[in-house]
Amino acid sequence: MRAIGWGCVLVTAACAARGPVIGPPAPDLTVTVERARPVHIRVVYPKPTDVVLPVDSTFLFGSVGRGDASLTVNGAPVPVLDNGAWIAWVPLPDDTVARFELVAAVPGDTQVKTFIARLAPRFRPPPVMVPWVDTTSFRPAGVLQWPVGEGVRLAVRAVPGAVLRLVTPGGTVVPFVADSLPDEPSWGIRAFGVDSTTYRLPPRADRYLGWLPAEPICPDSLAVSCATLEVALGTDTVRVPWPLHLAAFDPLRPQVVVLNDDTAHIGTTDSLTTGRAVPGGTYHWFFPTGTTAVFSGRWNDQVRLALSRATVAWVNAPDVQPQPPGTPPPGGAVGSVRLHPGSRSVTLRVPLPARLPFRVEEDDRSLVLRLYGAAADVNWMQYGISDSLIRAMSYRQESADELTITLQLSQRVWGYRTRFEGRDLLLEVRRPPAIDPRHPLRGRVVVLDPGHPPVGAMGPSGLWEPVATLAVALKARTLLERAGATVWLTRTDSTPVDLLPRTRFAEARDADVLVSIHANALPDGVNPFVNNGTSVYYFHPRSADLARALDHALVAELGLRDLGMGRGDYALVRPTWMPSALTEGVFIMLPEQERLLAGADGQWRYARGIVRGIEAFLALRAAEP
Question: Is the pTM of this model over 0.85?
């Protein structure tokens, strides 16, 4: 930290806690002070321990210590901000190391630094046309358990124009066909690239697909690969073992499992097992501890569950507890349901034959409870005392073993939560708060989450994201409290806080709104000079208006490019009890935006954007019938 006049340039938690600067603005001595420093080349990213993805080009950034220095990276000039910060977009070699020669100079002083970046290894085909196989491209590989009667999709990269087949120990021969579709951009480009030309890649002739009927392949030995891939090109053939160990099982003898994300009994989990549509994919289901389901497959550390005849979900293997052989699969009839109105919520009680898997599907003014393995015997749907929030209830047998119960609401969804009580499932629907349309923030409870630590991005001059986000949160708290809101921060110092305690913190305080504050950075291979600006993320539909309002307000305050809002799988936007959003106001990796975030003026602008966004969202909801 370096104090200038009455303010702070690089803000620490202690500095940020002072609030607004009192007195006249300090003179701008930044350039003068920076030029008094010696030239010192520092690379912030990548660090020597980082392994950069094998892409064509990526970014380096850091500082040279003073703003009047010139800088070149491998001979190419790189602009330097007046505080000495810089960022460069550089090509990468087809190798496992990249060597960069950095030269920074001022009259009478020249510094040279050789920086070595480690690159993730990539497969390089032989320079001549001979049969070859990329042994890192086998999909699937490892341990697989699969039901008899199903097939397994195989994929591999090999020399173009070859004839491929897999020969199993049982004598099955699996032919492969060429995959002629265009190549797939990196996940970073798909997620954050705004230039659609980066999506259009040429087809690759070295990708092949096959279909393997489930049969035992080395099920009891992890040391031997029994299936052999044959690659023939002309008169030459190479044979490579496929590292797959497949155990086939009889789906007519179901294995029942119970889900528990706290098998170690440490008590620090959220008592939820997340389900995904694909192994290791984005979250789609949230199963409470005790949920029962049927095992239907495994790939390494991911287990596939049969939720119903038509629906499967993938979960982490450590969360799965097998039940004794012969345990019947969960399922059966669901009887009559009843609403229980309360002062802050309305609870739907659903009797279940077992703790069945379920999913809550949210629409604008409805909640649909989807029960897997269930059949309807809902003779009565009791409303109890007439309640204005629940307009109507209905149910529908979607298929033989999927039942939906729908709650039509008189107002837009604000929040909900679920839990098991014995064998009953409780769906608690939150009442929207009574918002004063003239003073939308008055009386509201807002939780602000200063993003990170642990971890967090760092800017070229060394500004750490957790320091900056706390400074912004403290200023936003001041503004919100002036407007009559009650404000809680998930952290008030630099002590690391995990993700789960942050979301629990917000729910325990019955927050009306949760906003997580961050500063952005990009993955390797995504050009920061093209893909930068302000963005906001949400997860549940009810939070889309909050994200949109925050995005509009932040763009107006910060004056940066509008990257828009997006739906993102972030932990801080997944709580169901309140609308929540995650802001990425600036890109801390860019020198100009890091400097904006480091100064008190930029922090106040970020804070005002958050407050005005929350206020606009609440005003919008207050105006609804």
Answer: yes
